[in-house]
Amino acid sequence: MQLNGKTIAFLISPKGTEEVEFTKPRxxxxxxxxxVTVVSSSTDDAKAVNGDLEPGGSHAVDITFTEANAxxxxxxxxxxxxxGADTLRAEKEAIDFIRRFIEQGxxxxxxxxGPWLLVEADVVRGRTVTSYPSLQTDIRNAGGTWVDQEVVVxxxxxxxxxxDDLPAFCAKLVEEFAEGRHEGQxxxx
Length: 189
Known about the structure:
Layout: E1 7-11, E2 15-18, H1 19-31, E3 35-40, E4 46-50, E5 54-59, E6 63-64, E7 75-78, H2 82-89, H3 92-103, E8 108-111, H4 115-120, E9 128-129, H5 136-141, E10 145-146, E11 151-154, E12 157-160, H6 166-179
Parallel strand pairs: 1-3, 1-7, 2-4, 3-6, 7-8, 8-12, 9-10
Antiparallel strand pairs: 4-5, 11-12
């Protein structure tokens, strides 16, 4: 499937996003023809990590959450990283940005600790998702159903557990972004 003409927002925390969960999905989407725009709370380069503890690479940020408009994108990806996801879920602009994608029925991908933002945005209620296992209680408390599977798709919401799941996660991201909006399945937060 090709994503030519699709523009995907890709979230990154100023520090603490898991390197491979940022780079591998981005590479997969770009290889399929998508234009990726990196969005963060600051336009300073973002510092990624490996395994939450080791320094990773530095990544350029294209625009901030206050400059970004969900209407301008066909989908969004939320990589994990414990510190990165925890930092982003505390930012109102990031949460509002994510919520707009769900409200519009646009595809959303979240891996590892990325679903914390979905919990904070109150968009997992009634949905089946997966994540890093330590988030399962948060997801259940937010009204979602948590399952232990490498990738789960629920009405355009693609979730995975950890870096080992990246091949399945990336394949489903490309598939869901190619399908586009899930008309009739939008829901308000």
